[in-house]
Amino acid sequence: MKKYLIWIAFCLPFVAMAQDDYKRRFEQLGTTLPTPNSYRTAAGAPGENYWQQKADYTIKVKLDEANNKITGSETVTYYNQSPHPLEYLWLQLDQNMRAKGSDSELVGTATFFNDTIPAKFLEQYIANGGNSYDFDGGFKIEYVKDASGKPMDYLIQKTMMKIRLPEPLKPGENISFSTAWSYNVNDRMKGGGRSGFEYFEEDGNSLYTIAQFYPRMAVYNDVEGWQNKQFLGSGEFALTFGDYDVEITVPDDHIVAATGMIQNAKEVLTKEQNNRYEKALKSTEQTFIVTQEEAVANEKEKSDAYETWKFKAENVRDFGFATSRKFIWDGQMVELETTKPFAQSFYPKEGNPLWEKESTKAVKNTLVLYSERTFDYPYPQATSVHAASIGMEYPMICFNFGRPDADGTYSVRTQLGMTYVIVHEIGHNYFPMIVNSDERQWAWMDEGLNSFLESNVMWKYYPDLPYTDNSPQAITGYMKSSKDAQRPIMTNPEQVLRLGPNAYTKPAAALNLLRNTVMGPELFDEAFKTYAQRWKFKHPTPADFFRTMEDASAVDLDWFWNGWFYTTDHVDIAIDEVKYFRISTEEQSKEKKSKAPKGDLGKSDEEEKKTDFSEGPSFITIDKTPDFWYGEYRSKVDDEAIKANYQDKHFYEVTLTNEGGLVMPIIVKFDYKDGTSETKQIPAEIWRKNEMKTRKLFILDKEVEKVTFDPENELADTQISNNVFPKVEESTKVDEFKKKGK
């Protein structure tokens, strides 16, 4: 009787575990995510009563190049499409983070000083320690008036402005008000920044990348009410969709790139340039609208006259522009399935020859792949602007680094950096410019999803560039680092310790792993596209993403979200032991019984673990099934047929230990003695009964020489040296697991 109990124990998985080790990795997220309602469904879709606000802008802005100053005015029409009366409105004043005494300045932590420090970094280090360099930043608000011109009551609270309404704005109503302001444009070389200007000493010109330049409506929604968290620098923006009519006045020798489409090209371009522009809009070939020769000639003298460029943009959440007399301009039309957007690039001669060769091509490649995975790019154009040491995005326009050396030569590293930053920033048109998540609260929802698709563009279109970012292998160093230096992905960006790996690389690596290993590309792509199409031009939350991915795929992924997004656990799954068994022959069974002492039931579980296959297989005796095992059944199995069926099989019991805490699928490769190999994958649910240790029995046709966990290094396993059986020397283990990029 006891021998059969031993056999049952052999077949069943481990169920005993220490209570302290139980971390509910397979618990459903239903108790964590917000309760579904008529605004957002349990399926992750907008509900029947979903609503969102709208804000339209008419803006006039002027650049004072001599003083590096922006002066502007705007009329905002705000539509209350919520079911709530609003007693006040909140607007974002992002430039106020550069004001003297701002929270960004005060909460900056001290930076370590070396005994020698370059002068350029001194002011930046001081600023990071809570003291700004000598710059008069922040908005100077001239007025806030209602539609009749009457002053309105307002309060400036750091980087937010509250307009107190004389009476509540009722559901279905709208209100128009106007503001006027000015601010000094920051020198990015001295103080950094998401926007500002870059000065070129050799020719005395500047290149302006201008954003967050006007008071912007904050989001009011069903999740938080007003999203009026202060802007400290890391948490980006939550913004409302609307239509923009913008006039930008600059020196008349400047070329302007902006959100939207230019409305008066004939007035601000030469006749030849306008002809080229009209041709480029319809051509799939790269066309130069402003040539390098024209740009070089243009930058030699500065005009004192001004002219106004007019732009319109519909259904966008923000507006940005760039202006300089140094710009070269090229573009081409991109043919998608249902739309034909214009891909274009603006760059100074300092960007060539790299930029004319690669920039617009990278814009095109991004639009093509992102459209395949989500929806056809709905805006009329996408613009890449070159500026030093920056990567920043706004609707239809982004500012990107990647500059050759002074003699025009460039390294593969420079080309790689320039290419992937353009792909990344252009990709932001989808996340969050269209799928409009709250960057102030959830940086990973735009940066992580976008970095995931960025990596897919790079791997498809640039296989010869040494791109390894955002793969599971790229995040292992961070994931196995001290937990004191980490925060879960589901952390506000202002509290994240290392924003790059936390909001970009880790969620991107997780999604690549989810697509390529857990779900498979076809199923993942269908679910991901469902999410993008459900939430384009809307305001999704993390719960909407998590729920949609499961709803559209019929895959329970709560274990995945739990581990990757809510904890700092890492992947370290070790092959603890492999036991080898065969079915004994009749002669072997007799010999085994004659030699076994009375009461010997085999070695205990505390026996020394095997480290290789040198002892050969242990043999299992198959006896005739006793009648009592049939219970009430009146039929019986063919014992001899069963034995014969498995007589030539090789049984391998693989024991795996979860050292890192993050459960993952089990991928095991068997290298056979005849030189062939076979890989088997088991879903992550194998850990559901015991999240720290599991056993799996594999029945194979051949004898195994080596067993390898995660043979293609695709699971972000941080300790690959414990992934092999037989156990081998450390140096040999590392050599066998060379990282394989994606």
From TrEMBL:
Residues 597-613 have a biased composition (Basic and acidic residues). CDD domains: M1_APN_like. Residues 589-618 are annotated as: Disordered. Residues 407-564 form the Peptidase M1 membrane alanine aminopeptidase domain. GO terms for molecular function: metalloaminopeptidase activity; peptide binding; zinc ion binding. Pfam families: Peptidase_M1. The keyword Lipoprotein does not apply. Residues 1-18 form the signal peptide. Keywords: Signal. One of its GO terms (cellular component) is cytoplasm. One of its GO terms (biological process) is peptide catabolic process. PANTHER family: PROTEASE M1 ZINC METALLOPROTEASE, PUROMYCIN-SENSITIVE AMINOPEPTIDASE-RELATED. This is M1 family peptidase. It comes from Marivirga aurantiaca.
